[in-house]
Amino acid sequence: MSSFKKALITGVTGQDGSYLAEFLLAKGYEVHGIKRRASLFNTDRVDHLYQDPHVSNRNFVLHYGDLSDSSNLTRILSEVKPDEVYNLAAQSHVAVSFESPEYTADVDALGTLRLLEAIRFLGLEKKTRFYQASTSELYGLVQETPQKETTPFYPRSPYAVAKLYAYWITVNYRESYGMYACNGILFNHESPRRGETFVTRKVTRGLSNIAQGLEQCLYMGNIDALRDWGHARDYVEMQWMMLQQEEARDFVIATGKQISVREFIRLTAKELGITLRFEGEGVEEKAIVEQVFGDKAPAVKKGDVVVAVDPRYFRPAEVETLLGDPTQAKELLGWEPETTVEEMICEMVASDLDAARRHALLKSHGYDVQVAREA
Ligand code: NDP
Ligand code: GDR
């Protein structure tokens, strides 16, 4: 084992966890991550960082664990004694939180408490710095635009309500026990590693599959929703920066720009060489192909309906608009988002189109390829 700083990442197998692990390893950290037991391998996003447990001097170590299990968390913390804990693990899907509200509360709210309490119980509160993955979903029904650190919260889902508890318990442990504990209030951030059921990845993957003839139509929920989308790779650096300050404080991380889901669809189609016309209103709205250029979408022709609205993807309560004001992060952390939404779409499409082309090739050789899944 190295003598550098030690970090423990919960949710290391997720989008952010994988980028953060890469980032910390490049900085010379010894990185420990918590992964859940699953019936299939679930470490795809960190497999490139894997180190054989039979060799010594490993600086990337995975531990089985779960945020619902305090004794497990206490044991891992007592073994690792990390300098920094990044609590990224969560049931992170807003729509799913309406289906599983109690589980979401247990993991996202109480899970945070379990970690903080374990740090305190082990007497690590003066050694271990704590990062909590807070979210722009706290603003929900927005009370002020753009949203900054002082904007009042109004959560609109079981997920956001659970994250509100996690936000305040983090503040409370900082104020009560002098812990270095802080919240990163991160606005939506995406990448080619984004889960397939979040809207951006659903769009880049779905339209790439359509371009290659693997699917016909993409069914979407509320495409009027407005979001401030950044790149996950840029955002994990700020998670680390927040733990390197003299004093712990909470930060908004955002780009300060927003677009609608509809615009995200239009930009993705353009990247695939397809121009779209949106017709109809509400649940009748559809996106129709106007023109195809280049060679990325051989299976698409003028007049095809490639996007339609399906109310099954509407949420019981929606967050219509989010736009962050990252001024504090700019001033105190030197934050400048590096990647524009267009550059991010380009990267996501390149990755999803590559996969779609491989699937289409297999299909054309008679292999049974199933790409469409409930998203
Ligand atoms: P992901 O959904 O990609 O990753 C979530 C991670 O948490 C996965 O590693 C998952 O494991 C793990 N996990 C889920 N439940 C448990 C549990 N009970 N015990 C232990 N681990 C668990 O999320 P992101 O990487 O996108 O987000 C990271 C964090 O940041 C989350 O807390 C999210 O709520 C928050 N956030 C995300 C934003 C975004 O736009 N991405 C914006 C603001 C906040 P497995 O791989 O096994 O499913
Ligand atoms: P969000 O992300 O709820 O903002 O939470 P998501 O990508 O799921 O939705 C963004 C917006 O798009 C609308 N939408 C759809 N969403 C999905 N998933 N599928 C669809 O078909 C669809 N059609 C329209 C949604 O209604 C919503 O308005 C993400 C998560 O990463 C959280 O963990 C994180 O805290 C917040 O971002 C900031």
Automatic annotation (TrEMBL):
Belongs to the NAD(P)-dependent epimerase/dehydratase family. GDP-mannose 4,6-dehydratase subfamily. The keyword Transferase does not apply. Catalyzes the conversion of GDP-D-mannose to GDP-4-dehydro-6-deoxy-D-mannose. GO terms for molecular function: GDP-mannose 4,6-dehydratase activity; NADP+ binding. Residues 8-348 form the NAD(P)-binding domain. SUPFAM superfamilies: NAD(P)-binding Rossmann-fold domains. Transmembrane segments: none annotated. Its cofactor is NADP(+). It catalyses: GDP-alpha-D-mannose = GDP-4-dehydro-alpha-D-rhamnose + H2O. Its EC number is 4.2.1.47. This is GDP-mannose 4,6-dehydratase. Keywords: Lyase, NADP. GO terms for biological process: 'de novo' GDP-L-fucose biosynthetic process.
